[in-house]
Write the structure tokens for this entry.
Amino acid sequence: MRTLVSGSRGFIGRALVARLEDAGHEVHRIVRSDPAPGDAAFDLAGRGLDVSRLPGGGLDGVDAVFHLSGEPITPWRWSAAKREQIRASRVVTTGAVARAVAACSSAPPVLVAISAVGYYGSRGDEVLDESSPSGSGTLADICRAWEAAAAPAAAAGARVVNVRTGVVLGPGGGSLRIQVPLFRAGLGGRLGSGRQWTSWISLADEVGALVHVASDASVHGPCNATSPAPARNADITDRLASALRRPALLAVPEVALRIVAGDETTREVLVASQRAVPTVLERTGYRFAHPDLDAAIRAALVAAPSGSGRAAP
């Protein structure tokens, strides 16, 4: 395939580019500044995408666009400015990419646009698949707008996949970048009650899922990029501590989280409960490299960040 990738320097993007290049695919990048020949560039002021430096001067001939850009959601108190950065970095850029795809003079490429399980809001023990309605809260609102921003591409006949990603477990990034040093120091512990569900996925399977949905023409619309076995926060805490051979005897009360991180970040991120399952991936034959939590944690602690999930033959 000839591919175009935004967010290529991020945690997931680096692994995706490595996977695509290892498989022999041609990779071009969407960047925010200083585009080189062969790059596309965001024009955020004009809410557009400059594709003039791509071969042929446009998106014609590109098979798949992977749109992964977005301001990191950190587990700290959100200011009004941070909240707007989280929203605009997703909604504005997705709209720019979607309009560029819609403007193709030939058959448009598939648009694989990352989203998040935050779409569902905090839902307790409810099992959530792609047919579940959206929830309430800041992140649910952002995710709805994020996915809706891809509508121009779909209206122009492009196949659009909104990949609702869970917590990605991989080396050198994601939530483990913060957790592992704390656990190694013996400071790991559950958050709040620890009963909240976390929809997780290994980095290898996140990348594998992205490539799978780009390649399978039957996939369109929402797709949960989560493992088949979501886990409670207390279980993840115990498994990570065991893998690191450290105790995890602490528990951080929710009131302490709210003092440090703020009410909104605590409610939306730290103690939010999402029990999402990958119905679309399983139905279309994706075979998980790390379907269970222990294997995913081991891979995150020792493996190189490349994707190895694949579709069943």
Remarks:
- Confidence is low (pLDDT under 50) at residues 304-313.
- Residues 194 and 233 are 5 Å apart (CA to CA).
- Residues 2-311 form a domain with the Rossmann fold fold (CATH 3.40.50.720).
